Amino acid sequence: MAESSQNPRPVSPKKPGETRTEHPFSPTMRHAILGAGGVGGLIGACLAQASNSVTFVVRAEALDRYPKQLRLESPFGKFEVPVSVAAEVPPADVLWITVKATQLNAALSAVTNPHAVTAVVPLLNGIDHVALLRSKFPAETVIPATIAVETERVSPGHIVHRSPFARLNVLSAGRDLLGSPVDQLQQIGFACQYIDDEPTLLWGKLVFLAPFALATTAADKALGEILSDPEARAQAEACVSEACAVGFAEGASVDAAKVLAGVVGMPGNMRSSMQKDVEQHKTPELDAIAGPILRGARRHGIEVPATKSLVTAVERRAGIAKSLLA
User: Fold this and answer.
1) Exposed, middle or buried by CB within 10 Å (0-12, 13-18, 19+), for 155?
2) What is the mean pLDDT of the chain?
3) Could you tell me the fold of the domain covering 200-317?
């Protein structure tokens, strides 16, 4: 999924003779994953494959049922790795939060000692979760990040990574704490970048994700079908422009032309997680994904008619009675 950044810093393998500042942790670290779905499963499986200790935090009633072997099918490889499970977040070098935005408040009940975690990396859709997490954990430990990928948990402990890529962007302030695991994910196959500016990091994903999620869900079509339908494509492109206008007003360096160019290069069979949630009669992440655009538009006096039209269509399909537009 397309990224837009002001000062991206790609991660590259260390070259012979190159010196780098040592990370404060050894290459193997203790990772906890709060959210055992597709994204959490992919991150956890790859980190476990790199010989890290990985603990999945699951509901207490699911402890006995969750497998201790995690199976991943990915363009990066097919493998099984051992993992631990717990009902509470254990002491960890890194806590990856990968739940749906709609599940975050409930999931945080598993955090009994916020000071036992050195770094907190949220990979949720949207923007508003960052402030919430900084109120729950020591603020300096929360390192915003975004991921662009299509992955799915097809059954407990079985993860299928469907897109040919996984793109991880991390705020540059987390480089010292996260250098080792980011390097490991890069070596496995992730495309990783450090981004200096937090609004650009968060809005850089949202300006692609929101139009993609809203358009595919409203029409119940894959990305390629949206792009081949002149009317649906025009509406999605207008939504990109609106999202970028709001993001720019919020202080992000985003470019609608670059976002649209990135969209055209995406696999045509890609479907959004919001689309899948509506199909499965789950609550979609509509507030997390469209809410920042609508609320930002109101703050800055920006008209967003395409976004509003798509939100209305998604609410209709999902049977949502209380509209974001109210």
Assistant:
1) exposed
2) 91
3) N-(1-d-carboxylethyl)-l-norvaline Dehydrogenase; domain 2 (1.10.1040)
